[in-house]
Design goal:
Blueprint (H helix, E strand, L loop, with lengths): L6 H11 L25 H21 L3 H14 L5 E5 L3 E6 L8 E6 L7 H16 L3 H13 L6 H16 L7 H22 L4 H24 L10 H12 L2 H12 L3 H31 L16 H18 L4 H24 L10 H5 L1 H24 L10 H9 L5 H12 L8 H46 L9
Antiparallel strand pairs: 1-2, 2-3
Helix pairs in contact: 1-3, 2-3, 2-4, 2-5, 4-5, 6-7, 6-9, 6-12, 7-8, 7-9, 8-9, 8-11, 10-11, 10-18, 12-13, 12-16, 13-15, 13-16, 15-16, 15-18, 17-18
Length: 502
C-alpha cells in the first residue's frame, strides 16, 4: 500500500488550491470561523484539524466524489479552523497532508490510507452537512465527535434493500430492449443471485478480477441454460432472448462508471488518481471478458452452446425508455444507500439527462460521421449526444443542489445525483459489444480490429460524459449563486430581512 506520493500530484493540489481564496495566515483571525482571533495555532490543534479533514475526505472519496472536489472541501475545513499554509494530496489509495508553520517551524505531516468500502451516499451527505456546520462555526471537538458518529453509524437500509437496488438496475436496463415482463423478472432474479455471490467472495477477500470473472461466467451460463430451455420448448422462457439476459446482467457489473470517474479526474489534472481508477476499471472489465469466454467454452463442452449477440435488434418505445432510465438511476441510488430524497432526485436527473441525449441524437443528421470511418466514425453522434446529456444533467443538478437546503427532504450530494443520472449514459453495452467482437462468439470468429474500434468508441463516450459533467457543473455554479443573490436582494427589498433562508 503506497504511503508516499508522486511530485505530479503536488501540482494537481496547487491547482485545486487555486480555486479557493487565499487562506488566512496561521494565527490571523478568520471571520466567522471557529478559533478566530486566536494568537497562534498550537501543533496539537493542527493535528486534530488535519486528521478531521482527512477522515471526512476519506468518506467522500470512497463514495465516489471526484478527487478535485475532495481536496477543495478539505482545504475549506482547514481554512475554517484558521489553518493556512497546508497542502492535501490524493493518490486514490492514500491521502496525505502537510502543514508548513511560519518562521521556519517544523512541518506536520499526516497520512491516511484509503480502504475500499461500499458506496454510501447517505454517509457522504452527512459529511457534506457537517462541512457546512464547520463553515458556520462548529467547534473542533464537536466536529470530530460528529465525524466519528457518522463513520460508525449503520447504513440507513438493510443489506437486502441495496441488493434489490443492484438487481433492479439490471431489470430496468432490460426494459430498454424488451416489452416482455419475463425478461425483467428473470434479470432481477439473476441480479440478486450474482450480488450475493459477489458479497460472499468479498467476505473471503477474493481478488476483484476473479470475482468479476465468476460473476460474468455465472450470468453467461444461466443465459445458456435459458437458451437450452427455449430449444426444448419450455413455456416459461418463451419470448426471452438469452443475449439480453447476458447484456442486462453484464451492465450491472461493467466498470463503465469507474472509467467515467477516471476520465473526470484526468480532466481535473489528478493524473495519478485517474490512472489508478482507469486501471482498476480495465482489470474489472478484463475479468468480465475472461468469464464470458470461459463460460462460452464450458457451455459448448456441456452440449448446450449459446451465441451471445450483444446488439439487440429491438428497442422499447420512447416513453418506456424514459421510464427505464429513471428507474435505472433511482435504483442505482438505492443500491448506494441514498436517502429517499436523493433517490427521487436521481430518477428525475436520469430522466433529464436522457432527454438531453435523445434531443442531441435527433439533432445529428442520420449517418453523420459514418461514411468512410467505420465503427469509430459511426460512434461520433453517440459521443456528442452523451456529452450533451451529461452536461445538461450536471448543470441542472448543480442548480438544484445550490438552491436546496442541506437538511431538507430533497437534500442530496451533488456528485451522487450526477453519478446516478449518468448510469443510463455509461457505455456499458458499447464496451461489451467491442470486447465480444474481439473474442468472438465461437473460436476463430473474433475481429480484433473491429472490436478495438468499438472499444475506442466506448472510451470516447466515457470521456465525453466526464467532460460534460465537469462542464455542466462549471456553468451551473456561478448561475446558481447569481440566482441566490437575486432572490435574497428581492426578499430584502420586500422587508424580508432576517427571514431569508440561506
Amino acid at each position: 500500500m503506497p504511503t508516499t506520493t508522486d511530485a505530479e500530484t503536488a501540482t494537481d493540489l496547487s491547482q485545486a488550491s487555486a480555486a479557493l481564496p487565499e487562506p488566512s495566515p496561521v494565527g490571523a483571525p478568520v471571520p466567522g470561523a471557529p478559533g478566530a482571533g486566536a494568537p497562534e495555532v498550537q501543533p496539537t490543534r493542527v493535528q486534530k484539524v488535519l486528521r478531521l479533514a482527512l477522515r471526512m475526505g476519506d468518506i467522500l472519496l470512497a463514495a465516489g466524489m471526484p478527487a478535485h472536489d475532495v481536496v477543495v472541501l478539505m482545504l475549506r475545513i482547514a481554512e475554517s479552523y484558521g489553518i493556512g499554509r497546508v497542502h492535501f494530496d490524493i493518490t486514490y489509495t492514500a491521502m496525505m497532508t502537510s502543514y508548513y508553520p511560519p518562521h521556519d517551524g517544523i512541518p506536520i505531516t499526516e497520512i491516511r490510507v484509503v480502504r475500499a468500502a461500499a458506496t454510501d451516499f447517505s454517509r457522504a451527505q452527512a459529511i457534506e452537512r457537517l462541512a457546512g456546520e464547520i463553515r458556520a462555526g462548529l467547534p473542533l471537538d464537536e466536529a470530530s465527535a460528529a465525524c466519528k458518529r457518522i463513520r460508525e453509524a449503520p447504513s440507513p437500509y438493510p443489506w437486502w434493500a441495496a441488493t434489490a437496488g443492484k438487481a433492479g438496475v439490471a431489470a430496468a436496463v432490460s426494459l430498454l430492449f424488451s416489452a416482455s415482463w419475463k425478461l425483467p423478472l428473470l434479470t432481477f432474479a439473476i441480479g440478486i443471485l450474482v450480488d450475493r455471490v459477489l458479497a460472499a467472495l468479498r467476505n473471503r477477500r477474493f481478488p476483484p478480477f476473479f470475482s468479476q470473472l465468476i460473476a460474468a461466467g455465472l450470468i453467461t451460463l444461466i443465459a445458456a441454460l435459458v437458451s437450452n430451455a427455449l430449444n426444448h420448448g419450455v413455456y416459461l422462457f418463451v419470448g426471452v432472448r438469452p443475449s439480453l439476459v447476458v447484456v442486462s446482467g453484464i451492465i450491472m457489473l461493467v466498470a463503465g462508471m469507474r472509467a467515467v470517474g477516471a476520465a473526470q479526474d484526468a480532466i481535473d489534472e489528478f493524473y495519478l488518481t485517474a490512472l489508478a481508477r482507469g486501471f482498476q476499471a480495465a482489470m474489472h472489465t478484463a475479468g468480465i471478458v475472461v468469464g464470458i469466454v470461459i463460460a462460452l467454452y464450458l457451455s459448448r463442452a456441456l452440449n448446450f452452446p449459446i451465441a451471445i449477440l450483444p446488439n439487440p435488434d429491438t428497442v422499447a418505445s420512447l416513453p418506456r425508455q424514459f421510464i427505464a432510465v429513471a428507474l435505472t438511476s433511482a435504483l442505482f441510488a438505492l443500491s448506494c444507500y441514498a436517502s429517499p430524497g436523493t433517490i427521487a432526485l436521481s430518477g428525475a436527473m436520469g430522466f433529464i439527462g436522457y432527454a438531453g441525449y435523445i434531443l442531441a441524437m435527433a439533432a445529428v443528421p442520420a449517418g453523420a460521421g459514418a461514411a468512410g470511418a467505420g465503427a469509430a466514425g459511426a460512434g461520433a453522434p453517440e459521443v456528442l449526444a452523451s456529452t450533451a446529456g451529461a452536461t445538461l444533467t450536471a448543470w441542472v443538478a448543480t442548480l438544484i443542489i445550490r438552491r436546496a437546503n442541506v437538511t431538507g427532504a430533497f437534500a442530496a450530494p451533488g456528485f451522487a445525483l450526477i453519478n446516478a443520472a449518468l448510469i443510463p449514459l455509461v457505455p456499458g453495452l458499447t464496451l461489451f459489444k467491442g470486447l465480444f467482437q474481439m473474442v468472438g462468439a465461437a473460436p476463430g470468429t473474433g475481429d480484433l480490429m473491429e472490436g478495438a474500434l468499438i472499444v475506442f468508441q466506448a472510451a470516447g463516450v466515457a470521456l465525453g460524459i466526464a467532460a460534460g459533467a465537469s462542464l455542466g457543473a462549471y456553468f451551473g455554479r456561478p448561475m446558481a449563486d447569481r440566482l441566490r443573490r437575486i432572490r435574497e436582494t428581492a426578499l430584502g427589498q420586500l422587508g424580508g430581512r432576517g427571514r431569508i433562508r440561506k
